[in-house]
Amino acid sequence: MTDPRSDGLGVSSCINKSLENAGVSPEEVNYVNAHATSTVAGDLAEVYAIKQVFKDTSELKMNGTKSMIGHSLGAAGGLEAIATIKAITSGWLHPTINQDNLEEDVTIDTVPNVKKKVMIHVPPHVAIHPLHPHKILTRGNLDPTQIEDKVWL
């Protein structure tokens, strides 16, 4: 009942629409804080969706906050948003811990087990919120009263 489509189509459609609404091309994004609940079905669907949207993922970094804090249900999105904001402002990506045997389809840099210093591109206004991609974390000189579902930095 809660499994996403195995091909990631629902998630990729949502991410594409969010990027379109934010006026950002996929090539401008180099970091995603993944929903990553550590279920094979969910995590692989999310990886497939991200690959569909971002095409060339060679420079993309993706980490999973839940690997460190567990799934806090209703609080998960807020806690992951805080982790994403901290990554944007500090340049440090927390690791996705307990990664030992990745599925072979996971070819994105998931920041396995050790934090990483990265210059996160926030073109003047975007980072994708974990699996709630309709919420774009933004900064810049945009007027927040004119755009819905944004978290302003």
TrEMBL record:
SUPFAM superfamilies: Thiolase-like (SSF53901)
Key words, A-Z: Transferase
A molecular function GO annotation: 3-oxoacyl-[acyl-carrier-protein] synthase activity
Pfam families linked: Ketoacyl-synt_C
Its EC number(s): 2.3.1.41
Boundaries of every Ketosynthase family 3 (KS3) domain copy: 1-153
Domain of life: Eukaryota
Protein name: beta-ketoacyl-[acyl-carrier-protein] synthase I
Species annotation: Medicago truncatula
